[in-house]
Write a structure and sequence with these properties.
This protein is of the alpha+beta class. The chain is built from 6 helices and 18 strands.
């Protein structure tokens, strides 16, 4: 069990005062069986009108609307969470899905829908051939197969942090042989979909108590990984950037079919690219005591502080 305090600050600075369009935030951690959210506070400079909603995937969406032009924007998210997932999880996979290939039940297939459909083209079949290379036999153990594919991403693709926007296609990542955590996640999700499996992209944070994992909060960034749906076990987290399975050190913010749908902060301003002087993201994570967080939990849910 780990109790953590998370500070996520996003700062934009502009050459002159600009009008800001509505911004969409996905910064509230997703509560799960293995993650308890004690508190979440949001602070915004300049003053904005804030509204909350949930999207089709159950993600908490914050929309902020600004009245006046500004030469800077600061979005500060503070969260306190408790992680209870085991470091070495055991998954209760249904007998019907223990061996690949398997067929989802009719209701599961309907509900998974687009999560089983590849989002990127594979004109010459390269991605399909790549992932088929991990299927050593039919039938084969499902969990072992998925671990092998995730490990394959880890061993064949070099990690390289990228500050530029956008995500490489799976073929681009295979061609270049390097990518960021979001490129790793897209490659793994698309590979799983080529095998007919349901997969979704997750954005969030990586708790790195051993100071050795890649894409961690210590590097000042958010993280991305994949969850795959296996009957009986449900959604299983795979982090190909760190060759890990299970959600023991992962703190999800949002899940979606496409990585563009889980951007933590998205918005527009009226101007040109040269008007944006800088954009900085800082993530700070510290251990907290369970006792302090229990007191926070007794105080109620999320508070919104507008500065």
């Amino acid at each position: 069990m780990a109790c953590l305090d998370i500070l996520h600050t996003t700062t934009y600075r502009y050459r002159h005062a600009v009008s800001l369009g509505p911004h969409r935030l996905m910064l509230r951690p997703r509560e799960t069986r293995e993650l308890r959210l004690f508190s979440h506070d949001l602070s915004i400079i300049p003053t904005a009108t804030v509204s909350w909603a949930h999207d089709v995937a159950g993600n908490a969406i914050t929309t902020i609307v600004f009245d006046d032009p500004t030469d800077h924007l600061v979005i500060e998210s503070r969260a306190s969470v408790e992680l209870t997932a085991p470091a070495w999880p055991v998954f209760a996979i249904a007998a019907s899905a223990a061996q690949y290939p398997f067929v989802y039940a009719a209701d599961e297939w309907t509900d998974l829908g687009a999560l089983t459909v590849p989002q990127y083209g594979d004109v010459d079949g390269r991605l399909s051939r790549w992932v088929e290379g991990f299927v050593m036999a039919r039938p084969t153990d499902t969990l072992s197969l998925l671990k092998d594919i995730s490990n394959g991403v880890f061993t064949q693709i070099s990690y390289q942090s990228r500050d530029d926007e956008g995500t490489q296609s799976p073929i681009e990542t295979l061609d270049r042989g390097w990518g960021s955590c979001r490129d790793f996640a897209v490659l793994l999700a698309e590979a799983a979909r080529r095998l007919g499996l349901g997969a979704r992209i997750v954005s969030g944070y990586l708790s790195d108590p051993e100071i050795g994992l890649v894409g961690s909060a210590g590097s000042g960034t958010t993280h991305a990984w994949v969850e795959m749906f296996i009957p009986g076990a449900g959604w299983i987290a795979f982090d190909p950037t760190n060759r890990s399975v299970g959600s023991g050190n992962l703190i999800p913010l949002a899940v979606a079919r496409n990585i563009a749908q889980v951007t933590p902060v998205a918005g527009t301003f009226l101007g040109t690219n040269v008007d944006l002087l800088s954009m900085e993201v800082m993530v700070k994570m510290e251990s907290a005591t369970a006792q302090n967080n229990s007191l926070l939990a007794q105080g109620g849910g999320a508070d919104i502080a507008l500065v």
